[in-house]
Amino acid sequence: MGAVVLVEKWPVLGRHGPAAAWLRIWTDLGRAPRTIDAYARGLAEYLEVCEREGVDAVTANRAHVAVFVRELTSRPSKRGANVVSIDSGAGLSNATIQQRLVAVRLFYDHLIEEGLRESNPVGRGRYTPGRRFGGHERGLVPRLVKLPWIPDEQQWRLVLAVAAEEPIRNRLMLALAYDAALRREELCTLDTDDLDPGRRTLRVKAENTKNRMERVVPYSAPTGVLLANYLAHRATINRARGRLFLSESRRNYGQPVTLWTWSKVVRRVAVDAGVSRFSTHTTRHLCLTDLARMGWKLHAIATFAGHRSTESTLRYIHLSGRDLAEKLSKGMEQIHAWRVDMLTRAEAPSQQRGHR
């Protein structure tokens, strides 16, 4: 997405020269369009608050940024009750607020580099040697680190029951999304040339990944059968090479399936299954958690997922409970068994007294 398009989408950016210049630099550096779009939105919302408050964004201080934070944490959420506090029913999610603040912080980093100001009013959590209590300085908004949601067995079966009635394209997309732990964009941008049916692997091109890291991942034999059937069906729509998944709607017949089309498909499946939290990213979360449950090593899961850092992968290890289970088994086995034995022994006399 070019800088001109961004200014057309958010006119407030065009009224602030430094903001437009900063986004133009990021665009010229070849950052991912979705990243640029997210930064533009966050900065535009901040600049609108500055205009409303009569504040010059270039010279704004921490108190002015705090007004923006207050607006974010009190804004009505489109999804109802949210995460500012339990049952607060207001405010954007913590992750969204953090994303908005990243855009503003990077904008002020740019102003500092350009010599337009000396400090950044957006605090960031960082380690400071010599400080008491661990030396960690908090950012403007505490960062909440939540484990990803995954369905339980009953919810998963409900989703599968609905998915079984979907067209073969949608069933294959769900299977690959889980089998290869694909992100939404990685799935929708697969090309026919990315497949190697002989080895049952697929290539996820760097330009379609979140962190620009190419990887080759396997898929299972059942998914391979589904793929073969879909390729035969696809040939009735378009025999040319190109995007793997094609639209069959009257309006876009034969065109590549878009991210938004796939999101709508998954949303419909989730609603019909009565599992509203199921999303396009759930299959990836579930796959990586299942790999952790099976005992895969941390670096192997990180490679499979395409994570640049194992810190992201650790969430799935924690979610699976694998490390905790191993530690409990190895370090506390005897003590645990003794305590359980004593607890069960202690229950008998009380039961006896109850029958007297």
TrEMBL record:
Instruction: Cite the entry's keywords alphabetically.
Output: DNA integration, DNA recombination, DNA-binding
* Domain Core-binding (CB) as annotated: residue spans: 17-112
Ranges for domain Tyr recombinase come to 146-329
Which parts pass through the membrane? none
CDD domains linked to this entry: DNA_BRE_C
What SUPFAM superfamilies does this protein's entry cite? DNA breaking-rejoining enzymes
Protein's name in the database: Site-specific integrase
Its source organism is Actinocorallia longicatena
Q: Lineage of this protein's species?
A: Bacteria, Bacillati, Actinomycetota, Actinomycetes, Streptosporangiales
